[in-house]
Amino acid sequence: MAARRRKRGARDSEPEIPSPPGYSAIPIKFSEKQQASHYLYVREHKVREGTKSSWPQKRTLFVLNVPPYCTEECLSRLFSPCGAVQSVELQEKPDLGDSPKEPKSKFFDPTPVPGFQVAYVVFQKPGGVSAAIVLKGPLVVSTESHPVKSGIHKWISNYVDSVPDPETLRIEVDTFMEAYDKRIAEEEAKAKEEEGVPDEEGWVKVTRRGRRPVLPRTEAASLRVLEKERRKRARKELLNFYAWQHRETKMEHLAQLRKKFEEDKQKIELMRAQRKFRPY
């Protein structure tokens, strides 16, 4: 009896889990068989007054120390007892409050570095955040009804997900290009309206619209550039490096001069013979 009371007293007097200031610790386990617990540190997501945030205030839970095996689906399931979860997003580092939120691409976004991450859990109601902060654990990530892949099964799944579907990829590229063309057209229209118009202080913004547009390089122009590069490389080669090469080059040059001299003499004789007016 005394031993049981001592164990019970030691259990009751067990100190709280240390956590960063302002955060609450929630223990989680990968499976029921695991003895040690991992801790998530959570708090309500807040930003400074006057700063815009891409996350809804009073409904967003900020989570630190998320392990690599814990996916967005796992976090949504773990925090679902606290209230209806609207969305979950994992990030490599905390999001800046004033940074614009851009949609993530499944194909073109870089693969996140494997390691511990942060998460933003958005609830449908503000009460979900309050309930999550006081949530007790340990919470189990991988259960029989919701198993989490690990080891070679996870590698196979990641490889299958890395192979893109051609039709889905084409749709995303077309959507991106349509948005890009629309943005460029709006910027050009705005620049055209502001061209030559002075601002409040009388300054006129100089744009690049007045410059001559660059002609697209055709196949003929590309061939000329390649031929020019070939000639440039040929000039850099070692010519007349040896003495016998130098002598042969001189002899060939003299032979060409003699041949041209004889050809010029024949032309002059032919021109004299064809003259009709002969004063002597």
Automatic annotation (TrEMBL):
Annotated ranges, domain Rrp7 RRM-like N-terminal: 22-82
Gene Ontology biological-process entries: ribosomal small subunit assembly; rRNA processing
The organism's place on the tree of life at top rank: Eukaryota
GO cellular component term of the entry, any: CURI complex
GO MF, one annotated term: RNA binding
Domain Ribosomal RNA-processing protein 7 C-terminal, first and last residues per copy: 162-280
Assigned protein family: Belongs to the RRP7 family.
Protein name: Ribosomal RNA-processing protein 7 homolog A
Protein's organism: Vulpes vulpes
Interval of the full protein contained in this chain: 64 to 343 of 343
